[in-house]
Each structure stands twice: as C-alpha cells, then as structure tokens.
Description:
Layout: H1 6-18, E1 50-51, E2 54-58, E3 65-69, E4 76-80, E5 90-92, E6 95-98, E7 102-106, E8 112-114, E9 134-137, E10 140-145, E11 149-154, E12 157-161, E13 166-168
Antiparallel strand pairs: 1-2, 2-3, 3-4, 4-7, 5-6, 7-8, 9-10, 10-11, 11-12, 12-13
Amino acid sequence: MPQFTASRIARHSAAVAAGIVTVAAPLAVAAPDASAIPGEWPKVNPADFQVGGSYYFQSPSGSWKCAIHLDRGAPWAGCRGKVPARAPRVSGGGVASIHPNGVYMTTATPARFTFYSDTTVDVPRQRVLPYGRLLQVRGITCSTDPGYGVNCAGGGHYFTISTDDYRMG
C-alpha cells in the first residue's frame, strides 16, 4: 500500500474533482488502458448505479458502501465503512459521542465524519464501482482506488477515505 501524505492525497482529490487523474511515482496502481481519453479515467454510466433518485456503489474491496443523493437539498455524497481509529468522535445513533462509521460532503459544505444508523448510503446488492472509473452525477464525482480508497468531490469539497487514512476538505 502506498504511503499516505497530505500533499499526495490533496493532488489526487483535486484531480478527481477535475475529472482527471495524476499519478505520482512510485505509486503502484494500474493506470487506465490506452483507449481512455488522455488524462482522464473512464466514466461509468450513472444509470447503472441509480436506485430511485439516488446513486449507490460499493468499493471493489467491499469495505465501503456509498451513495450520491440529489433529493435532499444540495447534492451530497457519503460512504459508510471502517473509519480509521484516529478520526474524531461524533454524535449519532442516539449516542452523544461515538466513533464515526462514515463520512459525507455536499456541494455546498466541506466533508464531515458521521454515524449512519440507517441505510442512507447502502441498498441490497450495491454495484461495485471499479478501480480507476469515475461516477459523475450533478456536480459530484466519485472514484475508487486500491491505494487511496474512495474519493468523492464536488463544489470545491471532497473526501478521500480508506480503512487506514482519510483526507477531507
């Protein structure tokens, strides 16, 4: 697994937000094949991930269940999974202080940790968003990467999260 650094994750987050990918050596992650648009990961068909008015996916590892919602104010993305132990505690699930089990961001607000006590970000048989592919819906772009985990960005805000590390803005 590559070493996480703030600048490396920030570069990756900015690239995903712009719909392009930059790979900093010595990252050992397979690049998209040569048939892809130069400088851009291929996009998936959003309709393949749509359930009602929302879009659901999971990471290829199965560690993260995620969604992009359009029907609750500003478009937002969130994921539930095993949040790194160093993440700050949050209130949720009827508890005043609990370790978070997820993260979310909107196109209008920065990313935050949360505790999902419902099925807001998962549905039965969620489709896998393959590594190196982009899911783009109404100003939010999400991707998965074997080294970085899940990244979602939109409106100048983002999160990158894995079971080992995270970055938000």
